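Interim report, section 4.2 (structural modelling).
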Amino acid sequence: MAAEKQVHPSSAMQPTPPASAESTVHHTPARRKRGRTPPRIGLNLTPLIDVVFQLMVYFVVTAGFWTDEGVLTTRMPQGGGRPPSALELPAQPLNLILEPQGPAGVRIAIGDFDEAATFDELARKLASLQQDPVIYKSDDPVYIRPQGQVRWQHVVNALNAAIRAGFTQVRFVQPSPQPPGQ
Amino acid sequence: MPPRRRRAPVVPQMNLTPLIDVVMQLIIFFMLVSHLASEEMVPMWVPRLDAAQTQAMEKSQRIVVSVAPESFSPQAREADPLLFPGVPRGVQVGRQWFEAGDLDGITAAVEAARAAHPHAQVILRADAALHYQAVQPIMSAIARAGIQQLSIAADLPHPPHAQDQE
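Predicted structure of the assembly:
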């Protein structure tokens, strides 16, 4: 066994109890030690196994089963969730409409004028809306309007894309009822 | 017992006692650890983002609101985490458990936690597969507690594989 060879000589030379069951149970008389049978050298593996198990526990615990989580910081509306008055309604809201597609997919619409196939594309299109012809400014409000059946990951992904494009005022809108036929 | 004249054939035996001791320790350890881990962070599949802009989470001062999915095994959801029931099992605020419909209770719990830690970061953890209509009322309930800044938990990408596919 490889483990036996790596044991330090000093520990191997320690007096170890003989291997047979009866002599470990009973005390060996002194004259027996002088007998002709040479003491058999055994290796006590118990502490090795103990330490290996401890190491195993340590690495299992430190490996960790959870992926790291981060956060996207948002600002909540004030006023207890009441709808804002018409006077407060901003002039140029940008709507991001999310509709469920298939069992877990999503269809992304930017206002009523554009669509994006992926959230990567959405972020690029949102960024381009602020450049060259400046259609939207970065502090224009962006409304994320998901339908009720849209998976949470897509909603957070839309928020992430808007933040990535530099928009600072991103809001969630209450779920719109699902239109019939979808 | 008199010493034997002949050596009996050696029967190799293994002392199982320390092994059993250690295994018992392991069992107890994992029972405790799994209990501790589930206290605040409900196991769930947080959203995975394209080019995530997430920042590291505060470790000390935080109020975690978890919208928990139905129980699952990570291996079963590995292929497509979003193919999973979109209805939550319940909501946990800190270490308190609420039914998903108990919005007033959630509001009160967040208010109480906020009163105890005025500068704590409020974190909304929701499973990636939950429907928006299940999570949005929880957000409204948190807003009613007077919270103005809400942090939404998502996957924090590691540098080597930053562009995770959706």
